[in-house]
Amino acid sequence: MDSIYNYTKEMLINYMVSLNEKTYRTDQIIEWLYRNKVSSFDDMTNISKKFIEKLKADFMIDELKLVTKQESYDGTKKFLFELSDGNLIESVLMTYEYGYSICVTSEVGCNMGCAFCASGMRKKLRNLSTSEMVLQILMVEKLENLKIGNVVIMGIGEPFDNYDNVINFIKIINYAKGLEIGARHITVSTCGIVPKIYEFANLDLQINLAISLHSAKNEVRNEIMPINKSYNLDLLIKAIKDYIDKTTKRVTIEYILLKDVNDSKDDALTLAKLLKGLNVYVNLIPYNEVKEKPYKRSNKEQMHIFFDTLKKENINVQLRKEQGSDIDAACGQLRSKNLK
Fold first, then answer.
1. Looking at the annotation, which residues are catalytic?
2. Closest to 224 in 3D by CA, of 187, 259, 276, 269
3. What is the model's pTM?
4. Which segments of 157-279 does DSSP mark as H helices, in order?
């Protein structure tokens, strides 16, 4: 039986049409699911019992199982959820002055193999369904009794490696009668699957795009991000330019600072040259060290030298506020710790 959380508004409308039901039922169901967060179809009191029985025969209202929760001194909370098949995934809730933001996982494991990342320690087992992504938001909202206003698809996995389910997830959480998370408050991050960047640019969704770059030198990026061997920096920058031209939106460049790997002043100058003239801003990220990996966090002095170098080169840049450093903060750490 399929989870009803897999269904976008358009898919539910098609379901209604197939049954000769009134299509306005779609919004009623969506409001019950995402505004009222019912756990049973029987709770949908403005829908006929006959139609509720049909819904119960065709769909289920499922949940994720909470395995454990960690909370940081800064308020960041990390949730480990168990899926129906026993696989484990992570979601991270962050608190900002503008509200709550959640980092959502898109795959069980990851095949991108980034050398510094905890997610890649466990190979991809499968894509998450749309419902398993939607439920991360619903579960955290229920558990914490709050409203999430911002979503970043930057958890375990490469979102563009699970493209169709991620796009349906975005459509569901963006819909005005449901969770109503604005397009400009949703960010999808890719390590650089170039064909999907072009495809994403054509959707006209107004969703934010972030690129996990982490080096402006092909030889370094080849070592730490194997995706670069398939889609090098020339191809990636060309795709970013196309995206900016088509959408007129600014792109975020994610850059984790790794000690003695990509954090020198020369690295900063090379990055500035690569990005010169592009409508981007650089998000410098302190590295959350992973004990199984040899990489270390850049020291504060080097981070500020890197930051100042970019500023002097007129690159829009910020040094991201560190969050969750006292818990298993890096993507995949908590999951790996709980796997046999």
1. 90, 331
2. 259
3. 0.93
4. 163-174, 194-201, 218-224, 233-247, 265-275
